[in-house]
């Protein structure tokens, strides 16, 4: 039972009010909260940034992730906890898990935080990956190129996102600049995959082990940042991606939403990365799917029944990066839903997104092209 007090000062008790704690207070936390309010959930986020945008719609503890007092306060204020970005310190998740259920688990997070352990797990589960070699020294880099060949991508094993912490090598002249840029932290050299397109699969697994999958999306990036996602329907690729995601989530005893990013190379899915959280390529599900990825993440961590994941027709998403377009013009396009995250504009910053839902592919593609023209980012 919880006591609720209205602005007029009246108080009453209600049932079924579950408190969710979220480590991280960015737009993903914000959209989790917005999806949870209709279900009667309440939210507290922990984020050191005073202007963290989830804080506009949730209770916000403005403290560091490794501040034990803050973690204790978050735990005291929640029945279940989760996180909304993958670079949260594993130790913080473990400390939180001493006090209350946390999903996904610290163990799953730890494996997926390191590109090496992540890719080795993919390989152990029979998922194709790019050829890989670990690099700790400049000599390792030269040896790794010997085995992987050119072109290749040198990546930091940890803390990379939106294409940060990466250097592409085309030939021997790139070794020195690549080493100067990234040398010093544990690295991974990957063979460059000459893919046809990039795809991702968003999946959810509940505490009881029930699993659902959204339709695949085709994703386009610029400067390492996701620009567009468009739902595709391809039975063979969908089945293959679901097999991979299912195996991965079972092995990790994973709970919550997970996104598997893959390259489509000649109809073969090559696993690149698994994000242990709700994912940008799943934002279309807010209006486009029967149940959004945010709601299904909450249902999964609460061990509630998972909701249907089918798309309501043609669905696509365009990110709003750096600046927001004119809202009136954008909303003048029929079938468009606009989201602003309440963040200050800055170059390369994700400020919002647009979802496009249409009845037919041609109408949807026309609308997608119109939105892309309008947002011009
Ligand atoms: P990541 O941080 O691993 O998700 O990489 C960011 C982007 O870099 C991907 O979405 C791809 O566009 C590109 N990329 C990463 N790894 C490779 C690779 N091994 N081969 C080709 N492109 C890659």
Can you summarize this structure?
The chain is an alpha+beta fold.
Indicate the topology:
Elements: E1 2-5, E2 11-14, E3 19-23, H1 27-36, E4 42-46, E5 59-61, H2 68-76, E6 80-83, H3 90-97, H4 106-113, H5 115-124, E7 132-135, H6 138-148, E8 152-156, E9 166-169, H7 175-182, E10 187-191, E11 197-205, E12 211-213, E13 217-222, E14 225-231, H8 235-251, E15 256-265, E16 268-275, H9 285-288, H10 293-301, E17 314-321, H11 327-331, E18 336-340, E19 350-358, H12 361-375
Parallel strand pairs: 3-4, 3-6, 4-5
Antiparallel strand pairs: 1-2, 7-10, 8-9, 8-10, 11-12, 11-13, 11-15, 13-14, 14-17, 15-16, 17-19, 18-19
Helix pairs in contact: 1-10, 3-4
The protein binds adenosine monophosphate.
Tell me the name of the CATH homologous superfamily of the largest domain. Answer: ATP-grasp fold, B domain
Number of strands: 19
User: What count of helical segments does DSSP give?
Assistant: 12
Over all CA atoms, what is the radius of gyration? 21 Å
Query: Could you name the CATH class of the largest domain?
Result: Alpha Beta
Mean pLDDT score, rounded?
A: 95
Distance between the termini: 48 Å
User: What's the shape?
Assistant: globular
CATH fold-level topology of the largest domain: D-amino Acid Aminotransferase, Chain A, domain 1
> Architecture of the largest domain, according to CATH?
2-Layer Sandwich
How many structural domains are formed by the residues?
3
Ligands, deduplicated: adenosine monophosphate
Q: In this structure, how is the largest beta sheet organized?
A: 9 strands, antiparallel
Provide the helix percentage: 25-40%
Q: State the low-pLDDT regions, or none.
A: none
Strand content: 25-35%
Counting helices, strands and paired strands, the structural category is alpha+beta
